[in-house]
Amino acid sequence: MVPAIPVLLCGRVLGGVSTSILFSAFESWLISSANSAALPSADLSTIMGRATLINGLVATGAGVVSNQLVGATNNFVSPFVASGALLILGWVVIRGTWLENYGGRGATGEADVFQVKRLGSAWSIVRKGTCSLRAEKCI
Description:
By secondary structure, the chain is mostly helical. The chain has helices spanning 5-36, 41-73, 78-97, 116-121, 123-138.
């Protein structure tokens, strides 16, 4: 929609960041919730396996729906517009129904929304995440 190289490059970088967050945030939340619920590790393994399978099926379905959307509108931008609308819908549902996990030290998370202080103290994790981001973008 914007034929400018800097905007496209910024989109690639943000896409890499969001992909890394997508995969690591869900797994972190799942492991934390499983530990809180005292689930056995075998159940956690089953959940992760099924999540991976469902992720592949949803990705395939999204590709088919995107192809149909392009065919119906004769516009290659329409799947991206639809994904933005679904993203906003998902945010509204998640914001209204999910509980936030701020950690086990009594933190509320309200003071530092982007957790900048925690990122500074855990710089080795940030470096590993950056390496993961680069690997995901190469794939």
